[in-house]
Amino acid sequence: MGSTEALGTGVEAAGEPEDGRTAAEQARRARQAPPVERAEPTVRGPRRFLLQDLGQTDFGLRRFKLRPQEARSGLEEAGRSFLSGFNALISRRTETIEDFREDLRGFAFEGAGMAAAVLDLVTLTGGRHVRELLNGPAARYPHLVHVGIGWGYARMRARPMWGIKTAHPLLRWLAHDGYGFHQGFFATDATVGAQRRPRTMSRAHRALVDQGLGRMLWFHECAGPDDVAARIAEFPPGRRADLWSGVGLASTYAGQCDAEGLAALAAHAAADGCRAHLAQGGVFACSARIRSGIVPPHTAEAAPVLCGVEVDEAASWADESLAALGESPASHDDYQAWRAGIRRAWARGDKTRPDV
Q1: Which of 126, 131, 201, 175 is nearest to 1 (CA)?
Q2: Mean pLDDT for each consecutive 10-residue tract of the chain (356 residues)?
Q3: 192: how many CB neighbours lie within 10 A of its CB?
Q4: Which terminal Cβ of the chain has fewer Cβ within 10 Å, N or C?
């Protein structure tokens, strides 16, 4: 997810964080405190019917893979942060997201993006809530907000990006990613078991949805590399590259897997002919983390394994690939060219490959 000035409102060049620390230094200093306890907000009026129950993220309830408690609790906490961010915006308390643990704020702003989209679609405001979120508290999380917008469309059973005119011209394609995650999370039997795809979308758009479904599989299989690979192997070969891209993004951004497990994940992707796609997803995650100014230890650990370089350099590949598209990239072809450019950058720059 590139972060150059070309991305427009609220998006600056990745480069060095404002305080001058490198990504590695940020990782070492990332907060390790427990997450902030979040009480359910009290909301009056019609908005109260939109509030979400945080219990929806329980892996047992969702019938997800149950692995060692640390991995499960970490991923479930990411899900609760997402729903807490949703509730924060619905209750007009978006500023409370700043009280969340640093590495969880991105998930919370993703949830806020979903809430903003739902409100805009229900009230037909043309994107006012999305604009206010992007220009305000979520200015450093534009990628996550656009993914969250896709959740909103999926919840409203609408096709992205009808009705919201304030999304970023290029990042708006991330809404399809969010759509795919939502469908995998809440309609798992149909989307994962039966492998159904949105019938109202073109084949090209379905590929973007599959990236989001791949992200969801990291949660569905509770960050188990072997289980993720086995699940992807059940899908038709033509869908696997995008699924692996989503896995690369989730494993780098959400974590919950050690270096040995990540190496196994990379080996599985390589055996499936999708190693570059796994790396591309990891680069997207590095770019989003750099953009936020918060690089947690698990992202710093994942980058060298999945991308072959440190977080800062991986994020720069997203910037360089975006710049190569020229002025004002906005089309689906531009978005796919951005991803392809990142894969080429990885092929040239992965320092862990024996042929580099």
Answers
A1: 175
A2: 41 38 47 45 80 89 85 94 97 96 98 98 95 97 98 95 91 97 96 94 94 97 97 98 98 97 98 98 98 98 98 98 96 97 94 54
A3: 20
A4: C
Instruction: Quote the pTM value.
Output: 0.88
Q: Which residue has the tokens 């039966």?
A: 194
**Bond from prior residue into 161 cis (ω within 30 degrees of 0):** yes
The encoded tokens of residue 24 equal 């590695």
One domain for residues 115 and 83: yes
Name the domain boundary from 144, 163, 194.
194
| Helix 105-123 / helix 142-155 crossing angle, nearest 10 deg | 50
Q: Are residues 209 and 356 in the same domain?
A: yes
How far apart (Å, rounded) are the C-alpha atoms in residues 317 and 22?
16
Among the three residues 160, 194, 228, which one is the final residue of a domain in this structure? 194
Domain count, the chain: 2
Domain identity same for 313 and 354 = yes
Residues in the chain: 356
